[in-house]
Design goal:
The structure is a homodimer of 164-residue chains. With 164 residues, the first copy, chain A, is mainly α. Chain A is built from seven helices and three strands, in the order H-H-H-E-H-H-E-E-H-H. Chain A has helices at 25-28, 31-53, 59-71, 76-83, 87-99, 121-141, 147-161; strands at residues 74-75, 103-107, 115-119. Chain B binds a DNA duplex (30 and 30 nucleotides) through helix 2 and helix 5.
DNA sequence: GCCTGACTGTTGGTTGCACCAATGTAGGTA
DNA sequence: TACCTACATTGGTGCAACCAACAGTCAGGC
């Protein structure tokens, strides 16, 4: 953009920083800001990936499918606790997945409050497709970092997430 | 919360991992997931901080105030570019700050499309109060990490954010 | 037995943040 | 002149997180 020869600015408006703007130093180095920036970036790439190859599914759907495949059939509340997704969101997202035939829900005969949710064949195969999308996204998110730096970042973020 | 012994499971549902659940490995180590977790945590602490000592202001308000104090009066569009906030959001957030007397907006006489926004005395003093809140939040967010790890994380996240 | 309390799934919201579309106005350039 | 751009503003979308309330269900104590 602005690859032209003359930037005359006849109106001479720009009050400061005609060059690139590093952003306000007050927030620039603050971890909350950096984390937020990283999240926005990751979230954007993730959504782009899902939009391109996710067939209408989003982050929540993937989380629940992955958790189901990993741990086997379990109740919705259990699923929510394992994935940090609210019970109510679990219900609505599972309704989507159920309608698509990717999961099956059945009342637990031994505890009729519960729905035992299990992933279907179609769900597993869809999950594998999403896995490829996800892997590519990881690569794009981490693109600016070296292999070693990626491992460091993963370690630090994991440690950060272990906190209450 | 729930420090009790209530693992009744009379209906013995859990088909796997009767011990502690490390979460699905499929997402557990993925940077997008870790970044998202870190963001949720950071965002929650941030909102708690703002709710406690922010007098109704939120992240967007702080961002714009900080950018204004840092760089001096400038146009809204300029402000938005410097802070990664959409023009439309800049407008509405500035309307809040204007009404609170924390910023002042005046049409640029030399380019009447623009609003030159400047921070007021009250704005600067409010910003300093928010700074203290923010600093405390940083500390709580980074609590699980050592001093050296905090520096590493900051460096890596900054590098990550330099990407397009 | 009955009552109480806790848990489950569900519906129907709200909030914060990022983002997009359209519009009216103003400047600059061809 | 006409045209293209930039600006501020309004109004709306989408996603993720979260909360409140409810009916149905179970376990324990009385």
């Amino acid at each position: 953009m602005v690859g032209t020869t003359h930037k005359c600015y006849a109106g001479r408006v720009p009050p400061r920083s005609p060059e690139h703007d590093p952003g306000p130093a007050r927030i620039r180095d603050r971890p909350t800001w950096l984390i937020s920036r990283a999240y926005v970036r990751s979230h954007r790439l993730l959504n782009e990936g899902f939009a391109a190859g996710g067939a209408g599914l989003r982050s929540y759907h993937y989380r629940l499918l992955a958790a189901l495949e990993e741990s086997g059939p379990r109740s919705q509340a259990d699923l929510g606790r394992a994935t940090n997704v609210d019970r109510s969101d679990v219900a609505t997202v599972l309704a989507d997945l159920d309608q698509l035939g990717l999961v099956a829900r059945a009342v637990d005969p031994e505890n009729r409050r519960r729905n035992i949710v299990s992933i279907t064949e179609a769900g597993s195969s869809r999950l594998r497709a999403l896995d490829e999308v996800l892997d590519e996204v990881q690569d794009r998110v981490l693109a600016p970092l070296s292999e070693n730096e990626r491992r460091q970042l993963t370690r630090l973020l994991k440690k950060l997430g272990d906190a209450p």
